[in-house]
Amino acid sequence: MKLYTRGGDKGMTSLIGGRVLKTDPKIEAYGTIDELNSFVGLAAAKAGANEQTAFIAEQLEDVMHELFDSGSDLAYAVQSHPYKVGEEPITRLEAWIDEHTAASPELTKFILPGGSELSAALHVCRTVCRRAERQTVALAQQEPINEAVLAYLNRLSDYFFAAARRANALLHVGDTQYIRSADVFKGKKKNE
Asked: What is the CATH topology of the domain spanning 17-177?
């Protein structure tokens, strides 16, 4: 099998059931999801290299499959198959977020991305996820999409934030507080 087809040499690419410009909002949305998936793979490799964070690598592998499903749900020229993403992965993300939050130090101020290398990689995932979400919102303004993909991406960025903080806690690296931050989270209890 050849990896190149020459079919995209003039700026067109294939969807499932049609062809569009590579700048089409569908391509922007699922292309950014693909980009995110690559960063998740990098974070998973970093998490898997340490026994304390190996369980995060396992979670990230599930996320990679779900991101592939999300991109697939957006890749149809005309939706002709059942969607792959539903409520179950969103509910699981919420449980993971709660677990990571409960096992992390209390958050009172905004923090900067980073700390450990794994945490920094997860923060990159968080920001790329937010971009994928924005592009999916833009797509949804133009045509019907699987709304579960939007909910999944929204929850996923929260997961990356919680996992980044948990990674720092597990690796005994403190979060770096934003020095000009007020106590923005005061009055909120853990898991509230």
From this structure: Hypothetical Protein Ta1238; Chain: A; (1.20.1200)
Give the integer Cα–Cα distance in Å for 21 and 17.
14
Domain definitions of the chain by residue range: 17-177
Q: How far is CA 80 from the centre of its chain?
A: 26
Cα–Cα distance for residue pair 34/174, rounded to 1 Å: 31
- Please tell me the least confidently modeled range out of 46-50, 61-65, 146-150, 181-185: 181-185
Contact assessment for residue 95 and residue 59, using Cβ atoms and an 8 Å cutoff? no
Sequence length of the chain is: 192
Alpha carbon distance, N-terminus to C-terminus of the chain: 53
Confidence band for 190, pLDDT divided at 50, 70 and 90: very low
C-alpha distances in Å from residue 17, one per residue of 7, 73, 149:
15, 13, 20
pTM: 0.90
Q: How confident is the model at residue 192 (pLDDT cuts 50, 70, 90)?
A: very low
